[in-house]
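Handoff note, outgoing to incoming analyst
You'll be picking up this chain. Sequence as last confirmed:
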Amino acid sequence: MNDGPDSNTKVDDAASAASEAAARETAARLPVVLQVLPSLDVGGGGVERSAIDVAEALVLAGKTTIVASSGGRQVVELERRGVRHVELPLASKNPLIIRRNIARLAELIERENVELVHARSRAPAWSARAAARAAGLPFVTTFHGTYNFGSGTFGALKKRYNAVMADGDMVIANSQFITTHMKENYGVPEARIRTIPRGIDTARFDAEGFNPNRMIDVSTRWRLDDENAVVTLPGRLTRWKGQLLFIEALARLKARRGADGFRVTGLLVGSDQGREAYRRELEEKISEMGLGGNVQIVGHCEDMPAAYMLSDVVVSASTDPEAFGRVIAEAQAMGRPVVVADHGGATEQVLAGETGWLFTPGDPETFADALESALTLDTEKREALAVRAAVHVRENFSKAGMCADTLRVYAALHETRAR
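Most recent structure output, in case you need it:
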């Protein structure tokens, strides 16, 4: 029996051929898909990114596909990928506009011979469900968040509003945490759920082929001290993302190490999206904690791979559970240690003690402990962690995997409806 290199090559070639054949078979069964979402603004998050990624995968599979939203700066990126965008007022939560959008989507479905509708947010989902059902089309939703609803009469009404996202012929959950949430709170049966983790672009977030000049550009713009370790919290400036907790944890770490031995720069990377009062509150907290020279609010960053490469540790400190939290996957793909609040879909991405550390949600003391562990890694352990983290993300959280799994959902529903 030949177990040499030629044999291995034949196995790899056979596996590749089988994969390509499966992809062609799926492509042949794909419908014309209409995705609906509120907008395509920059910095919106997983809803927008997922829609663009899946639309591009459909185009690459040779299918016509359409995305409808109220527009935004990412429309250019979508159209550059060969995807049609139709502008409709889908960001509105006004019941009258939602009702009018039913007719608008119905007309679009008929005109473009749409064969499947995929809703990615609640307000457009109400219109999309009605239009899809009227046309006799499969209706898919992606449950992108927990959609908190609270208690009392208002909570009951909000839960009813949220429930449209659980009413697809197939409901995609972007983490096991969301799968459990849907079952427990909305009674979605296992047969109608597909758990497909968010995927990141592993070609973009790749330390191997990274040009270090990009790091220099970002470091110069942010005026980073070369002697300090950099701890980064990416995410829009909103209270539940945990920026205040991050500042508190760094203050405790500084108290432990002493002012002279601290040598850490904390970065808050993300747009305030008009939340000027919260930004001022963060600035005041930084000053109050004695971190004026140590924590910077640097705003939105166009080159997040460079931001990750500049970081010694990347943090996800959300005070509410994240449905997924893609910055954790992105940072690990770049070989960076992560420190993550131990709840929600975020924990599913971390190999605790191997690619990152978990801390008790909302607790600055265990947060500081985790930061200390990550910052004191020696060079050998840091290099080993980088390899493990990158492999872990590529095997479990790639954009290619997410898109392939989503297209299989489309193909299966289309085939079932065609029978």
